[in-house]
Amino acid sequence: MPRRNKHKRTKTNPVSRNHGIWRVYVLCLLAAYCIIRFFFISPILSDTYFSTAYYDRGGRLLRLTLSEDDKYRLFVPLSKISASIKNATILYEDKYFYYHPGVNPVALARAAARYLSQSDFGPGASTITMQVARLRYNLDTKTVGGKIRQIFAAVYLDMFHTKGEILEAYLNLAPYGGNTEGIGAASLIYFGKSANSLSQIESITLATVPQNPAKRGLNTDAGLRNMTDMRRDLARRWLARYPDSSGRLTTLADMPLSVGRIADMPFCAPHFVNMEMQKSSANHFRAAGVRDSEITTTLDLGLQKKLESVMSAEIAKRRGAGVRNAAAVLVNYKTMELASYLGSADYFDKSIFGQNDGVMAKRSPGSTLKPFIYAAAADQGLIHGMTLLKDTKISFGVYAPENSDSEFFGPVLAKDALVNSRNIPAIELARKIGVRNFYRFMADCGVAGLRAPDHYGISIALGGAEFSMWELARLYAMMANLGTLRDIRTIAGGAPGAETKMLSPEAFFLVLDMLGDQSAMSPKVPFAKRPSAALRHYWKTGTSSSFRDAWTAGIFGDFVLIVWVGNFDGAPNNAFSGIKTAAPIYFALSRAVTDYYASKGRPLADNDFYSPDLNVSRVDMCAGVGGLAGPYCPHPVPAYFIPGKSPIDESRVYRAVPIDIKTGLRACVNDPKTTRAAVFEFWDPEYLDMFRAAGIVRKTPPPFMPGCNPADLSSERDMPVIISPINKTKVVILSGRDSETVSFKALAGGGDEKIFWFLGPSLIGTSQSGKVFQYGVGIGEYRLRAVTDAGAAAEIEFSVVK
Q1: pLDDT attached to residue 490
Q2: At residue 397, what are phi and psi to the nearest 5 degrees?
Q3: 250: which of 109, 176, 292, 443 is 20 to 30 A away, CA to CA?
């Protein structure tokens, strides 16, 4: 018999097989839905433009901007919308919102019957989802074709979006009268609060508007009257739906409604908000989850208004002198947060082009850059505050810079040269540190728009390059932070920016120590006796060429304050002086800042910037002449220097020498029987020439007694100093010739010594010390030597070019 198969075949149940296939179909459909939902379906509001609301650091509204399509439409996520407005909207517009698939079949059937009898769909048929479809896709739903498209669009939205997303879209698109759309803008404009802070009666009021915004909009008196009955009706329905609500709701619904209007909206710190809008393009913000449309800034509105008031008063005082415009910016250098921003004296004054932003405009900063030249020089070991510099006439071919007062101090300490804004010492320091090096330093500090270094030459030391107040505030904040460069922050709560170390902290400390001591300010300066200030100020003034711009930049307490005075059209005015005009305004504003924080219980404290971590030491130096105070220095004063870097040596100006008792002449040798010791001032010939030119008499030693051996006195003779031309100078030929007459001048000894001039190896002439010798020189590079009859020599290099 054939062998039987022990394994019994079972027949497949067709019903089970079909169930398996359907499960696969369902899973495939579900997968397809998920792919479409998450990868191909954009957020409902992805192509909608929204406004931006800017707030100050305390949450006070500065401005609500218009969207790109000229609407006040502020995006608010559903999580930041109060439950009362969500519930009131659903109760009034679509009580079955959470239950239907985007359309309400019963309401649609009722509307269709009405249309067949009256040719009008009438109210009540559109669900919230259908209204979103109409608003989102700009549908004309008064026609049958438009209504059908609306129905399909609503089903589509409901299929691929959650109810929360749909409700969020509706509350951000719904019209609330005029060009106000969305609950965010409506709550802010009409009630002055966020959508999350609306009360029940305010929510009920706003919920009735979108159904007929032309008649019920809160933007008109007629709208306020027309919506009263609707508000009462919704209040009754609310109490029926939410019986636990306050019994005062009906009473509130019957009371007259007081609302704000667009014309009453704040328009504060306009230049600042404009700057933020340009910086972030936030006025054309699209709600695609990119960023919040409500921005809290670091600006303090209370302080802003106070400074605006003070600025207006200060401008009014000087209007008779033609001063009509100014700008100011205040930055907390410790946090790098902007505190106040005044772009002009009056934003709405067309006569001064008030809508221009003076904080961001590029202008010549005048002498406000000098502290950074001194910092660079201190960092290279060229100076400290008590280094003796020269303030005397110099020329660079055809360019002969002068001081603003057309006078020269002669020998001057670095700190005095800085606070008195002497141009010549700053130019000499810029030459020593290198114009290209200083240019690179400015570029590394983030100064934008600089031209090539050769375009400015040495004039960069005097404000030849253009800076904005914003850039200058950042530089002064860097100085206050002892060389740490950071960006200015304008958005509250943002992460601190990256830090860059520029120069050494010790170099900036020395400069701050110089700026903080204004006692050496010349009495000729009209503002030398400035109004007393409660805090120590580290400040510098600046005046641009032809009196077009007046500046004062300073540091006090926790703040950097920059003030500019001028005209936006560049018109000059002799009143535009940093020390005469900008400085008084600076101190008026700084006092206002101090008073403001004192009134808030947060008085500002002084900061001397000293830290034990700094590599600086303090020693006694000789007042007026610099250098370590020797035994004969009449007035030692304590001063800072950088050990191992600053050029420091004992002052050799004051020396004791033997004087013959009988003749009063300088003795050849010291003999206690016939001489006495007396202290005199020993200056280089160049300095003595400066004093003579200025009419200043110094206590110099008398001549030697006759018969002294010149060999014994050789150590007392000084090297000659070549005054003209300056080392490394380029003499430019202006005429069509191939040579130019160059003026040679040198100083030596007591002023009567003979100078022998050598051009290369050739003797070209002689002159007396202090006298000019002229000689025609052709195009080329030359080595010039000046030799005295005692054999002392000095040497420089210069060139003649076309």
Answers
A1: 95
A2: 70, -115
A3: 176
